[in-house]
Prior knowledge:
441 residues, 3 domains
Amino acid sequence: MTEEQITKGIGGLIIVRDSIESALALPRSYGVDDIPLVLTDRDFSTSNQFTMVPYGDSMLTNMTLRAQYQVPAQVVRFRILNGAIERSYNLGFSDGRSFSIITSDGGLLNAPVSVTKYILHAGERIEILVNCSGQSGTSVDLKAYNSLLAGNVAGGENFNNGPFANYLGKKDFNILHLNIGAQTANAITTIPKTLITNILLNSANANITRKLTISDSAGLPNIQGPNAFILNHKLFNINYNEYQVPLNNTEIWEITSSSAFGHPFHIHDVEFNIISVNGVAPTAAQAGWKDVVFIPGKTGGGPGNPGTPSVVKFIAKFDDYADALHPFMYHCHISLHEDEGMMGQFVVTNQNAVADLKNTDILVSLYPNPTNNKLYIEFKNQNQSAYYITITDVLGRTKVMLPKPELLNGIDVSHLSKGIYHLTIIENNSKQTTTKTFVVN
């Protein structure tokens, strides 16, 4: 249901800050010279409601039609998320100016990368710096130069009819009109030369190379387009975990795609480093920490000729546990494709730790009980903690779900109706469960 939920607005971005970024001379006056941009597109019905389609006819920036914004005549920072259902955006400015990319999905690059165009695929994030110094009283447009996209890249197609037809297909269009005003006090007017020293993963330290495939399959039911796009020759099954990854494993994932279409591949749990795309090292803007990588469509092909598959390799360290109850996922970040089954699951196991703790009892108490405000949880064994907490009512209906909860200030249950409830705790180390009953009065 991802396409439907994103269409209706359940999608956005989170800004994560740290001491290294805070020490840099970067714009950070939120809404003045530090501006988040969520890019998407929508189709409107005759009653001006969103319709659920892969491509909309109208560009929306921060959910605004024909968006414009006033920025100061200095260096301006845009934190950009491609939140579209499917479309990629070939970003550039109407006057051809350069802009500097300073982050990829997972954080700062070693140094700003100056470009005039950048293709941002579904789910990807970048931050850019644009120098507007000395330009007060002028204006410029941030545009999508999608007429330049290949026909097998989302947004580069030109469908005249059918479910994928849309006004913006294979066209250039405005994303944001910028009116440049006066410079602010304490303005940033220069772009730093260096940002951080990333320590990337070394392929020589990889424990394994996992080989994944992307392919097309025709004739499957409930598929909107002519092809179903599938991972590892199967559609998603929520009860099946494809891989068991040992905790702290460093792994190379090698994805070979015979699909005619390009797919932004996303993995949960980790940030990774791209090793190569079709044998070529990543560009400087892609050489940092990533969690989305574009897998190009195959090249060539035709009657009797399958074409040449594309091959993308990345390396990641899996340092966070995930059991079969809460597996991590990997999928195409085009929502329609993942909804139709282009997705898989994996667990990250720590067998030794689980075996050592398997017979450890979970002794826990709840207080005050009854309660009408907050419920506090105390583990008798100080080495134990909560991995997951679920609260259900007497009919078995889930009322509260708390992954890795902070318990110091208690759990707010004031919104629950009076009655009896069951609280189930999954212990963090052993992954064993215990259930306690409490009363809301």
